[in-house]
Please model this.
Amino acid sequence: MTVLLGVSRKATINNIAPWVKICATGAVIIATGDIAVSSHLTVFFDTNKAGINTDEGTFTTSLPGVFACGSVVRSQKIAVRAVAQGKGAAMSASLYLSGKELQPPHKMFNSRFDKLLPIEVDEYLKESVPDNRLSPGKENLEGFTLEEARKEAARCLHCDCRKLDNCKLRIYSDEYNADRKKYLLGTRKTLSKHIQHDLVVYEPEKCIKCGLCVNIANQHKEQIGLTYAGRGFDVRITVPFGQTVKEALIVSAKECVEACPTGALAFK
Model:
């Protein structure tokens, strides 16, 4: 049996203790969402200034069979991170109830960049709408209506990678235990987006200059196509004659996206 424990502001040690005792025959996941509300729980666990001490990756606490996630561990400003922790805690609770060894999930290789520069914000806003943040029209507990959800979702800047699961560079970097910090030199290149195409987004800074798209466009006899520009470390793949990606990839766009080993060329 697994119990998800949420504590109200009127919670006391007396009405929390019975739930914690369930861990003797089952599992308890503490996800109160508010450290202040959860202050009564500190008598049961090892804690720190941020909240309940947990093992990173498995979300186990000092009490066997009890797992904790979200703001009860550390204040979470981004809801999606709390949701991810909840998923991890649920997986650990499942393994615990099955009598299996608890192991943190494998974190695949990721390459991340720092905060966006002012000029880069404009690039990412190309895929967004200029509307301000939207709050639910009714009571917050009822959430967004379908139309409100669509409007709020349209504000997304699409800072994610569109080939997160099939980026060959990421897959091989993970397989060979690559350390992206080992070869960090100087400042990174400024990020840009080319979104003129109806189907394709081109992000040059994700390109590894493999030339597959250049060859494919040439095979399809694209009138404009793609080409190499520059030399040495400054070489890049671009659209010649100052044209756009939409004009460069008329018949070969889909094949170029499918061949691109990274997220440089991806479907919108």
